[in-house]
Design a protein that fits this description.
Number of helices of chain A: 10
Structural class of chain A: alpha/beta
Distance between the termini of chain A: 52 Å
Largest interface: A-B, 93 and 93 residues
Strand content of chain A: 5-15%
Strand order of the largest sheet of chain A: 2-8-7-6-5-3-4
Low-confidence stretches of chain A: none
CATH class of the largest domain in chain A: Alpha Beta
Helix content of chain A: 25-40%
CATH superfamily of the largest domain in chain A: Type I PLP-dependent aspartate aminotransferase-like (Major domain)
Number of strands of chain A: 13
CATH topology of the largest domain in chain A: Aspartate Aminotransferase, domain 2
Radius of gyration of chain A: 21 Å
Mean pLDDT of chain A: 94
Oligomer: homodimer
C-alpha cells in the first residue's frame, strides 16, 4: 500500500477493530459495568413528552441547563461544572487542557486503560507507579516530580477506594500541577473529593452518568473544578465542537439529576447486592478486593481466571477477563440484579465443585 | 494569576465566551442556518416509543446501525461511512487523522471559520487562497504544493457551489494529499461528490444532519470515503471516546435517513422559498450570490450590512453579520418558512424606503 504519497501524512495510530457485541438477548452481560436498573422515571417522561420539532434547533451551547442542574445537586455554581460526551471525552479534554509539561504525568500501573492511550495520542509523556501486592496505591509514589497526576477513586479494575486523607496528602504534595481524580464509580464508594475543589485550585474531579445513573446510552460525563480550570476545558472543547451535548442528552441528564430519591435507592440496592455477592465469592474460596464500585474484582487460588471466564461465557454469563500483566488471574464482575448474581454464582459453584 | 506553577502547563488557548442566546420566543431566528421544518415524522415516533430502560446500556460502538442506514441511502457499504457528533467533530477528526504533513494545508480565505481554529489547535500549518471578487474559488490556486486540501461545497458563507468538473480537476491535481470536501449544505445544492469516493482513494466527503435533516439538536455528522480512510478516522475517534454517538442520536438519525420522501419535500420547499426570497432581495437592489444552500448571502449598495443587521434585530429578526475582512458589508440570511421570509423582507423594505 506504500505507493500512495498521502499515506505518509496519516496519523500514527493502529486502526481500531471493534469488540464483539453479543446479540443474543438471553445473555447476562456483567462485563461492561452497566447498571442493571433503568434510569430515573423522569427520563422516560422526557422521551414521552419531548417535541421532535424542537430538535431542529441547535442545543444549548455548553449544555448550560445540565450544568445548572448539576451545580444545584452538588451545591456548586454552574461555573464549577463542565459537561462532555461521557467521562472519556471529559478526561481527554482535561488531558489536553492541562497536561502540556515536558515532565511526565503519573498514574498507577493498574488503572483505567485509556490513560496511556490518550498520552500516546496527545504526545504527553507519562510514567506509571506500581500498586502494591494488594493493589493498593501508595500516595508517596506520587510525591515525585511530574507534569500532572491522574488517579481514579475508586480505582478500576481493582475496585479499591481511598479516603480523604489520601486525597489531601496527594494534593498537598502536588501543588504545582493539575491533579485529576476520576470518580467514575464514586457513587458506590465511600468518599468523593468534590468537596475539596473550593480548597484546591489545581483539582479536577470527573464523574459519569453511565454507572450510578443508568444512562450509559446517553454519553454524559462531567468535571467539577474551580471556574478558571473549567474555562480552559470549555475553551478546548468549544474550539473543536461548539455543541458538546445533544438536546436529549441534556434533558435526560437533568431528569436523572433531579430525582435524588431514585438515585439513592438504586445505588443502595447495587451496594447491597455487591456486598452479598462478595461474601458468596469469598465463601467459594475467592480472593475478593474490598469493592467501593459496582463491580467485584476476584481471583480463585486453584482455577484460572481465564478458565472461569470461558466457563461462565459458555453458560451465557459474560464477565470481564484482562489478559494483562499482574491481573491476568483476576476477573472483573459487574454487579447485576440479585437474580443475575445468583445465576452467576450458581454457575461458578458448579465449576468449582466439578474439581 | 501567574504565581501558580500549574498555569505554565495550560494549553495556549483563549478561554471561550459563549454567544448571546435569545430567550424571547417571538424572535425569528435566521442566524444559525437551522431548518424551519421539523425532522421526519419517524423521529417523533422514535421518541414516543423508545424505552428509557434501554438507555442503561452503552450504545452501539461506532454507531453501526446508523452507518448501515446511511450506506443503504447512499448506495455504499457501512465501511465507507464514519459518524461523529456533528460535522464539526467529523471534520476535526479528519484533520487529526490526515493532516500530519510539514507542508501547509490549503483552503479558501472566505470559508468556514473553524478550519483555521482546528489548524491552530492541532498545530497544522495552513495557507489560504483568496476567492475572487465574486467570491468564486479558482481551482488552479489549489494546484500548489500542500499537505492537504479542504473546500466546502457549497461554500459558506458565500452560498456558492461548484460542479463535478471543479472537483475532479481539484482531485486530479492533488493525488498525493487528502482532499476533504465539506458538504454541509449540499442537499440544497446541485452537485455532491459522494459518487467520486470509489474513484479517488484520497477523497473524504463530510455531511451533517443539522441542516437538510432538521436535527441540529441531535449533533450528527458523517463522512464518506474508501474503507482505509474511514478506518483511520475511526481509530482516532475510538482512541479518545469509545462510543461516539448516544443511542437516541443513532435512532433519530436512522428514522430521518429512512424517510426519503419527507426529506425531499422539505428540501424542495426550502429551495423554492430561497429562490423566491433571492428575487425579492434583488428587486430591492441587493447583490445576492447564486445560493446552493439554505441561506442567502446579500449586500446592499447603499445601506451597510451592519445597519441592516441592527435594524432587523431591533424588529425581532436575527440574521448574521460577520465583522471580517472582505465580507463586512455582507449578510448571511438563513431561509426560514415562507412567512418568516415575508416578515424579514417587509422589515428590510421599510428600512430601504425610509431613505
Amino acid at each position: 500500500m506504500s505507493e500512495k504519497a498521502w499515506r505518509k501524512n496519516l496519523i500514527n495510530i493502529e486502526p481500531y477493530v471493534a469488540g464483539e457485541q453479543p446479540k443474543n438477548e438471553n445473555i447476562i452481560k456483567l462485563n461492561a459495568n452497566e447498571n442493571p436498573y433503568p434510569p430515573a422515571p423522569g427520563v422516560a417522561k422526557v422521551l414521552a413528552s419531548k417535541s421532535a420539532t424542537e430538535l431542529k434547533k441547535y442545543p444549548s451551547a455548553d449544555a448550560v441547563p445540565l450544568k445548572e442542574a448539576l451545580a444545584k445537586r452538588y451545591g456548586l455554581s454552574a461555573e464549577n461544572v463542565f459537561c462532555g460526551n461521557g467521562s472519556d471525552d471529559v478526561l481527554a479534554t482535561a488531558f489536553r487542557a492541562f497536561f502540556n509539561s515536558d515532565k511526565p504525568i503519573v498514574f498507577p500501573d493498574i488503572t483505567y486503560s485509556f490513560y496511556p492511550v490518550w498520552c500516546e495520542l496527545l504526545k504527553i509523556p507519562y510514567i506509571t507507579k506500581p500498586v502494591d501486592e494488594d493493589f493498593k496505591i501508595n500516595v508517596k509514589d506520587f510525591y515525585c516530580e511530574n507534569g500532572g497526576v491522574v488517579i481514579p477513586n475508586p480505582n478500576a479494575p481493582t475496585a479499591i477506594g481511598v479516603g480523604k486523607d489520601f486525597i489531601t496528602d496527594l494534593l498537598d504534595n502536588n501543588p504545582d500541577v493539575i491533579v485529576i481524580i476520576d470518580e467514575a464509580y464514586v457513587d458506590f464508594g465511600k468518599y468523593s473529593c468534590v468537596e475539596l475543589i473550593n480548597k484546591y485550585d489545581n483539582l479536577i474531579v470527573t464523574q459519569t452518568f453511565s454507572k450510578s445513573r443508568s444512562l450509559a446510552g446517553m454519553r454524559i460525563g462531567m468535571a467539577f473544578a474551580q471556574p478558571e480550570l473549567i474555562s480552559y476545558m470549555q475553551a478546548v472543547k468549544d474550539s473543536y465542537n461548539s455543541y458538546p451535548l445533544d438536546q436529549l442528552a441534556i434533558e435526560t441528564g437533568i431528569a436523572s439529576v433531579q430525582d435524588e430519591e431514585y438515585f439513592i435507592s438504586t445505588v443502595e440496592k447495587i451496594k447491597a447486592t455487591r456486598d452479598k455477592s462478595a461474601q458468596e465469592f469469598r465463601a467459594m474460596g475467592f480472593k475478593v478486593t474490598d469493592s467501593e464500585t459496582n463491580f467485584l474484582f476476584v481471583s480463585h487460588p486453584k482455577i484460572s481466571a481465564k478458565e472461569i471466564f470461558e466457563y461462565t461465557r459458555e453458560k451465557g454469563v459474560f464477565i470481564r477477563y484482562f489478559n494483562k500483566p499482574r491481573i491476568d488471574n483476576w476477573l472483573r464482575i459487574t454487579i447485576g440484579t440479585e437474580e443475575q448474581m445468583e445465576t452467576l454464582i450458581k454457575i461458578v459453584k458448579e465449576l468449582i465443585e466439578s474439581r
